[in-house]
Amino acid sequence: GAGVSQSPSNKVTEKGKDVELRCDPISGHTALYWYRQSLGQGLEFLIYFQGNSAPDKSGLPSDRFSAERTGGSVSTLTIQRTQQEDSAVYLCASSRGPNLDEQFFGPGTRLTVL
Amino acid sequence: LAKTTQPISMDSYEGQEVNITCSHNNIATNDYITWYQQFPSQGPRFIIQGYKTKVTNEVASLFIPADRKSSTLSLPRVSLSDTAVYYCLVGTDTGRRALTFGSGTRLQVQP
Fold first, then answer.
1. Which one of A91, A99, A105 has the shortest CB-CB distance to B98?
2. pLDDT below 70 — which residues of chain A?
3. Which of A80, A98, B22, B44 would bridge with B88, disulfide CB 3.0–4.6 Å?
4. pLDDT, tens digit (0-9, with 9 covering 90-100), for B13-22
5. Residues of chain B whose pLDDT is less than 70?
6. How far out from the chain centre does Cα B62 lie?
7. Structural domains in chain A plus CATH codes
8. Whole-number Å distance between alpha carbons of A45 and A26
9. Nearest beta carbon to residue B100 from set A45, A98, A107
10. Strand, coil or helix: A66
């Protein structure tokens, strides 16, 4: 079956612009995660959606970052007024159930802020 | 959430067994231990998960001592294609907080 998909695969933007990154999880997966990864670094957790529960936003680095998950499926990560330090690969993952279930990752969106 | 500590990097040669240890001194009773592998330019992928003693699958083994304050991922007879970053995660499926990946262990396998 289809895996997790993300779009765009690459995004180049100018400092101060807003960007939207999209994630299509595996159908039927109730949990969805967003991470970012800077070059050569580990994964930095951003936000976690589980079913109809309030999302765990504890990883969002600032109020410029927000995410939505509509209808329990597609998710959009929005970064407002982008800064150069936002440049990274943004990875989305989904799992059948919460936390312990295997997370399946998408190919990521490489964001470059000039 | 239980904090994990792993070596930053390890080197090995093809055909050797590699053991990567993760420390998690404040692991909770309901916590499981999960390992992921990440190749360059790809997202991580699940390797193995366990609660206690030993778990083995077609890829690796996971050894967890009785006190569960550490765990060891064992990769038998590594090849060049096992060069990757390996992450240890500790947590439970209850509660709202997500598991965190940390910095991982960068394994370099040489010919």
1. A99
2. 1
3. B22
4. 999 999 999 9
5. 1-2, 94-96
6. 8
7. 5-109 (2.60.40.10)
8. 19
9. A45
10. strand
